[in-house]
Target: SsrA-binding protein
Amino acid sequence: MAKQKENKTVAENRKARHDYFIEEAMEAGIELVGTEVKSIRAGKANLKDSYAEIRNGEAFVRNMHVSPYEKGNIFNKDPLRDRKLLLHKNELIKLAALSAQQGYTLVPLSLYLKNGMVKVSLGVAKGKHNYDKRDDMLEKAAKRDIDRQMKEKSRY
Model:
């Protein structure tokens, strides 16, 4: 019987789900050098304030911080360098069309390992207003209160 491998999430952009409405998400590979892969496997990556853009028919993720590998010495690259995303041509065209619309952007949602490869979950996002964020917080608080009351009733 074949083993089913799990995805190990290395970094998650929680702020993206708070600041944006995620319309669509897709998986992309990412072009890395060896020391970056070792550093990501050690959990030393950060997606905060990162975003993706499409230039000249290629997708790049910007401001993704990958800490230098301790034992990498001269082979370490710049921690904030632009990294190319690996997507099929039709996926690139689709993302370019979606992100070209007014108010939409491409945001990396999470960085994870899948079958030994580093993958990025890329979301097409639209910015939230402050009142949208407050509504989300109120809904979350209400759900938490309901769950707490249901748990108390089930005890008795």
Remarks:
- The mean pLDDT is 85.
- The helical segments are 14-19, 34-41, 89-99, 130-155.
- DSSP finds four helices and nine strands in the chain.
